[in-house]
Every structure is written in structure tokens, then in C-alpha cells.
Amino acid sequence: MRVIHTKSVSLVIAEQNQTPAIVYIGRRLEQPLLESSLTTLMQRAIPQGGLDEAAQLTIASSFADPTFLNPALQIHQQGKAWAPQWQLQENEATESSVQYKLADSKSGLVLSWHLIADAQNDVFTIETSLENKGSHNISLQQWLTTLPIPQQLDTVTSFTGRWIHEFQPQQQPLSFGSIEFSNWKGRTSHDHFPGLLLGSQRTDFTHGECFAFHLGWSGNHQQRVERSQSGQCQYQAGIALMPGEVELAPGDQFSAVPLFFTYATNGFAGVAERFQPFVRDNILSFPNATPRPVHINTWEALYFNHEQTELDSLAAAAEHCGVERYVLDDGWFSGRRDDTAGLGDWVVDESIYPNGLHPLKTTLKKHNLGFGLWFEPEMVNKNSQLHRSHPDWVLQLPGQQQASGRNQWVLDITRPEVQDYLYKQITDILRDYPVEYIKWDMNRDLLQAGDHQGKPVYYHYVRSLYRLLDRIRKAYPLVEIESCASGGGRMDYGILKYTHRFWLSDCNDANERQIMQQWASLFFPAEVLGSHIGPTKSHTTSRSHALNVRAGTALFGHLGIEWDIRQANESEQAQLVQLVSLYKDLRNTLHQGIRRPMAGADKHQIAFSVTHGDTMLISIFQQKMPEFSVPAPLRIPGLNNARHYAIDILIEAEQTGHLMKRKPSWMHNRTKVFSGEQLMRFGLPLPVMDPESLLVLQLTDC
Distance between CA atoms of 461 and 467, rounded to whole angstroms? Predict the structure, then answer.
């Protein structure tokens, strides 16, 4: 038996068979394992009416295994060698990792399987690769990293969505059979986030067992949760391969993508408190340690109107409101007066910028603003010099009609000459201007993504994207990159290795953002979730919110502004200055702390806390009309029984007199100091809140 311990979790692998099998993932085991007795406990009943041997789910199941579950591996050699049977060749282990090398004598395939434990954060990573050491080609149809699931966990929470409506949770019971989530869009997708939660019907934000999984990949992927009639359960995830996409010639190797997972006993909050620090410690790499600067993005303020006077006046207004970085969005490059032309020609449009971007550079320096710039490098318009010169650089199938998306097509970045072209175009701009930030957009899905020979290249496309990003980062290590794909269409740990921020959604509506941010924060820390203050009336939903609701929602990510603040009245500008200043005061807590979802005092509330050091921030958003006329007290978990906490109100609704004859007395009390035990057990009485109103509190250990 092999046992890997983390702070709170143990993972046990049985090694007595030729193919190792994970037999336990759960609460940390405190006593030494007696292998003989554990082996006895693992020998379950064998029912009548089936095979004469008990089936065990291994780390590399195939059609040779008698589980009758979807196998991890599917291969063949011209219709033969399709049921690999492994022999264990090598076995290496440390306190925090284990590595196995398995071989199949018939096909010549060798599998390397590596598990690494982050002991402090309770997160495990599985990395695998396949190598053809035989003498014949191997067609790889599927590799899905596979994990056993405890039989009592029967509720799957996955995340779907669409443009301007990302990160929408959906719960499904797991009975017999399988639940499958397959993405074929070539990017991570809005539809199927490559991660899910598995718990029981009793698991909620703060209670119950919970597994969480995330696949670090930015392209086609598949997740499966399956339960057989025998009661065996498994989770699987991996790259979804197109027909014939991966053919392993002798000596070739296929690198699968890492699967990250964790286990918690305090519900979804436990997932957040594990994954957020794990990402900070293992995935993110900022170029410097400076605080995340406040952005202003020109898109919803100016769209394609790039008049210099407009740009300059927006910069002046931004400085007045405390903005620190100015991001020039779509419309600055050659021929780009609308979305039908110009993509691919990454040179400054001299018809609107006769002196290049140098006047804007001067303006931004004058107003103490960093320079950010929008690119969409993977795309091309047919109305562009690039397409006229190289129509063959488009991903397409010869002789077939392909639909465009936003009047654009996808470049074949698997071709070295295309990579070289894009690298030069981007780095020429970075050389000529003091750009410190790239908004890297990607506004359409891949379709008929074939190379010049017509072979599918979805897998190689993503690998090529990673190489291009890595090349740019090495050449300009101080430049930050945002991953944007029509909003949140490319959010995963794979792309985050090469970027620094996500544009979670093109929707800045506070109501929609509260939902998205609540669930996205289970997997990602606040500093990578771009969240902007939009205009009073949302451009995507036409819903209106007060400024303190919009800003109080954006506060809990990486704050920016997506609004023509020149149109704000004097009162709004003064309020905006105060709210941006509040963000700057709190961003150390926000971007180093842990955000945990909370059970609200009302079922129509979205509530969460952020804790760092001796400070806790609490946000309560009232989505709909309260269920009762007086809400229940808010019980605040995670405090110290014996400590006392001062409470300050940072944001509250401006008008509540029509809902209450009297507010809770603590809101008038000058001291506002309570013990941790009181706040956890009795709870904090809340005011009656309007639908779509917000209350933000700060608790300080005193």
C-alpha cells in the first residue's frame, strides 16, 4: 500500500496487482495502515450472475478490465491491440508524490502516471504521458484520467453558460449510468467549464463532503461521472480528441493534461479555501509584486470611436477617479472601423493615428496611467492584408464551406510561419510603445479546424497557443496578459500558466456578476477575476443598478471601470472616487485573502466572506424580494470564540426607510463590538433589504 498525506486528506494506492488502484481518498488517516487487514476490508462480495472475480478500478483502465465502465484508455493498431493489459515496470515515490510506469507488451505502449500532492493546500495533481515504444503506429482515441468516487456521493454540480451568462451552476443526481460533459468548441468554452463538484444531497456552501475537480486545458475536453450497477463510481477527465487527431508513430509521445482535485468536509467553502491558495502558489506568476492596478477599458465608453480628443478626455476623467491603468480596446489597428475588417494586420491605423500611438502614450504618462492594449491575434478578417496575402493560413477543410463568427476566421497557429508572423507583429508594438498589459481576446469557436492536409489540429492548436504565449512572455517578462474569449470562454489553469487575469464576462450587470463571481471563486482567486464597474444601465441586460451596488460587486475581483465616466454627474464622480479609494485600501486583503461562500440569512441572498490576517470582509447581495419581512440573523462562520470583533459598514443601500421603521440596533451603535461566539452562534441581525441591493461589512479583530 502507498499512502500520501496532506494537511487534511489521505490518498491510498493499492500496489499488489500489476496495475495500481486508488482505494481511498478522504479524511486524513491518523493511524498507521495495517496492510493485511486493509486488504481484507477491500475484498467485497462477489454476486451471482456475473464474472467470478471482483473488478477493481485501476489508474489506467482499459477494455481488458472487467469493470464494464468507460475505460481510461482507448487505442488500437488497425483494429488490433485494443485491450491493453499492463505490467508494472517502475515505481518511484516520495512523501508527497508517486510515479508509476506501466507497459503493454502487445501494443508497445508505455504509460507514465505521476501524482503530486500539495500538502499545505490539500490539492492533488495527476500528470500522465503515453509513449509508443513498439514498432507499429498506435491510434489514440481516448485518454481520460480516472479517479474512483465514494459510492455515497450522488450529486453533481457542473457549470454551464453562454456569452454574457457564464458560470451558471446546474445540479444533477447521479444514479445508474453516466453524466457526460463534452466540449468540442476548440477553446475552454462558455458551455462546459472543465471542472465540477461532487457531493451528496446534504452538501452545501458550508457543510458536507465534497470533491472538486479541474482539468488544466484550454481546448476540447470531456468530463464523465459514472456509476455502474455494481455500485462502482468513477470521475474521468481529459482532452476530447477528434477522429485521427493523435496517431503515435514508434517513438512518439502524447502528453495528457493535468487533472487537479481536492477533497473537503466543509462543503464548497472548503473547495475555495484549497484551490485559491493552490493557484497562487503553483499556477500564477505575476511579473512583480505590485498591487493589482485599477483599470479603465475604453470599449463600452468609446467602442470604435478613437478620436484623440475622446481618448484624452477619458484618460483625464480616469485619473480623477483614481484609475491606474488605461486599456485601449478594439479599433486601433489598420482598417478597423468596425468588426468586419482589419484582424490580422497588427499595425497602428495611420488614418486615425497619424502619429501612431505616441500622442496617447504622452497623454497616459501625463495622467499617471499605465498602458494596456487589445489584441485578437488568433483571428483574421477576410478584409485584411494578411488574408489577401495568405488565405491558406486559415484553419479550414479544403473544398468545404465554413461559417464565420463575428465576420472572422481562425488562423492556423500550428504552422511555424504563422506563429512567427504573430510574434513579430505583437512584439513590434511592444517594442515601440510602453505597453504593460495585453488584453488577449478570442471571439469565436473553432470549426472545421483542419490543417493544410485536412487533418484535425484542435489538440495541437492549444499546444501552439501555449508556445506562442510563452515566447512572448519570455521576450517581454514585465508585460501582463489577460485571457479573454468573448468574456469567460477561456478560463482554466492551463491558460493561467501563461496569463495573469481573466475577463470573466462581457456582462457587467451586478446581478449577473454576483452569481458568476460566487461560483468562479471556488476555483480562482480574486486577483485574476477581472470585474468592472459598468454604466448605470447595463449594455448587455438593460438592467439598472445604483453605483454602490455596481462598485461593491466589482470590488471583490480585480477592479476596473467599463463606463464613460465623463458622463457621470458630479455626485457620481465623487462617489466613484471614494469607492475606488476603498478598493485600494482593501486590495491587500482581497488579493491575499480567501473568499468563502456563506449561507445567507435569506434564501434569496448571495453571501460570502473574505478573510486575511485579522480582517474579514462580508458581502450580502439581496437578489430578490426577501422571503420574510424580517430576515434571520446572519451566522458568521470562521471566527474565534474568545476574540472580539469591531464591525464597520463599508457599503449599504442609500434608501431603506420605506422598508424599516427601525434598523437593527447594532447599525446605530457606536461601539459595534461583539464576541466571535456571539456572531457565530446568535448571528448578526440584518436590515430589511431591497431586491438587488448590497451590504458590505468589515470585521476587525480587536
Answer: 10
165 and 278 assigned to the same domain: yes
Q: Is 441 a catalytic residue?
A: yes
178-209 burial string, b = 16+ CB within 10 Å, else e?
ebebebbbbbbbbbbbbbbbbbeeebebbbbb
Q: Model pTM?
A: 0.97
- Grid cell of 212 as nine digits: 472538486
86: nearest Cα among 106, 70, 71, 66 = 106
**In this predicted model, what pLDDT tens digit does every residue of 164-219 receive, in sequence order?**
999 999 999 999 999 999 999 999 999 999 999 999 999 999 999 999 999 999 99
Among 154, 506, 509, 602, the active-site one is 506
Of the candidates 118, 122, 345, 441, the residue annotated as catalytic is: 441
In DSSP terms, 104 is beta-bridged to: none
In the listed set 566, 591, 616, which residue is the last one of a domain according to the structure? 591
Q: In terms of DSSP bridges, do strands 221-227 and 87-93 run parallel, antiparallel, or are they unpaired?
A: unpaired
For 651, the domain range is 597-701
The per-residue DSSP string of 320-331 comes to HTT--EEEE-S-
Tell me, yes or no, if 506 is annotated catalytic: yes
Output the CA torsion 69→75→76→79 (10° steps): 40
For residues 71 and 448, give the distance between their C-alpha atoms in angstroms, rounded to a whole number.
28
Contact 346, 429 (CB under 8 A): yes
Same domain, 603 and 544: no
